[in-house]
Amino acid sequence: MTTTATADSLARIPFLREERDPGGRCLSEGGRSLDNAAFAAAVRRLAGRLAELGVAPGDNVAVMLPNCAEIVTTMFAAWYGGSALTPVNPALTDDEALYQLEDSSSVVVVGDERARALAATLDIAWVDVRSIHATSERPVPPVGQPGPDDAPVAQPDDFALVIYTSGTTGRPKGVLLDHANITAMSSSLVDHFQLTAADTSLLVLPLFHANGLIAGVVSVLRAGGDVVVAPRFSPSTFWELVEEHRPTYFSAVPTMYAVLEDRTGHPVDTSSLRFAICGAAPMPADLITRFEDRFGIPVVEGYGLSEGSVASTINPLAGPRKPGTVGIALPGQEVAVVSATGEHLSTGLRGEVVIRGANVMRGYLGRPEETTKVLRDGWLHTGDVGTIDEDGYLRIVDRIKELIIRGGENIYPKEIEECLYTHPSVLEAAVVGRPDPVLGEVPVAFVAARPGLTLSEDELRGHCAVSLAPFKIPAAFHVLAELPKNAVGKLVKAQLSERAPLR
């Protein structure tokens, strides 16, 4: 099914669905379910509330919540008023969350009491999450009028999402995606997976990532299907959700597949599932085979970045799937590998993976120099090394960056190192990735103390816990007399990696 919706119609999705099938399934979470009419009404109410708070076209609306239906409603309400959405990971510390709210210039935060306190710190507006689906709180504005009479519908070049991704400088960067980007990305996924109104997405990935928002929500809603939001992934309840809601697909990270394959001890009904998507980190080929054989579900591995609106290659459903590769370019995109001098390389040769298409971001918020580094001559330079075979299948073989992917969460060592350097006893600090059989990789820290001072693992762990989200805290801390350096005094992390073997 190929959709013909224009970019500005993303904001109209709830209302188009309401017109076509007001009683049709749309959005479910736990024991709650919204049909198309109820969802559209909730979007109108929240859009009206945002307008009353002074949120204007071009402003940024932040939402800071664990997975719930209200995040989806907030996204469409922001879009209908011509605003962008910034989803904030609720696992972040207050300092980390405040940085993203300030950097994105958010004018309102939708969330719980913690979000209220953060909003007060910045003197910006707050919307109580409990009010979003409370139908008795306020009347529903007429169709097409979510707020003031002049409330605009977003245009294709208006920003739609500001997604924060870690940066090599240690501070997260805001990836700017406009409505044209998301239209291109969602239509590409609809085409590739032939999504229709008969499809249901089971959303187990976090909604502060582009994957959950675009692949798990926008794509299936624009195709006419519906979304089931799982508050959090749990192997003990996952298959119950599948059997209860009968989804046709879900997207997960390798860690989730490994846990499901390891901990499922009873027969499960997977007959509703057409396919499952794997991304965020490489998935071992033997795990894909074991999972497919055991549960009878095709697992299609893909590859992408937030900078490319989430996905650029995916193994096909109808054609050959090649475990160990991340598939072929999605419709509307070009993927190539280039040399250090920018020359496109032939089949089988290693080079940096580059991407071109309408899905590629507009840039990094407030960071023109970093934008220029990755967007060159119309191509997005990913920093990943790969090869493309004779059939067009991409294989990721290495990373140029020092990114650590822990269970699907991106962690950059620089951010942890900067935190460690704020400890008064730390002289030197370096963080590397250590292989982990369940999470893929975990960060490990090496530090050297200032002369005459001492450090302990518990002390360093407690120091990091003050400023870093739990998933960023190193799995181990090693205190050395000094860290290895090369002839010019630069830390040699390769030698440290050898000291952080698989446990």
TrEMBL record:
Q: Which family does it belong to?
A: Belongs to the ATP-dependent AMP-binding enzyme family.
Q: Which residues form the AMP-binding enzyme C-terminal domain?
A: 415-490
Q: Which GO terms describe its molecular function?
A: medium-chain fatty acid-CoA ligase activity
Keywords tagged on the record: Ligase
All copies of the AMP-dependent synthetase/ligase domain together span: 20-365
The source's superkingdom equals Bacteria
SUPFAM superfamilies linked: Acetyl-CoA synthetase-like
Name of the protein described by the UniProt record: Long-chain fatty acid--CoA ligase
User: Its GO biological process terms?
Assistant: fatty acid metabolic process
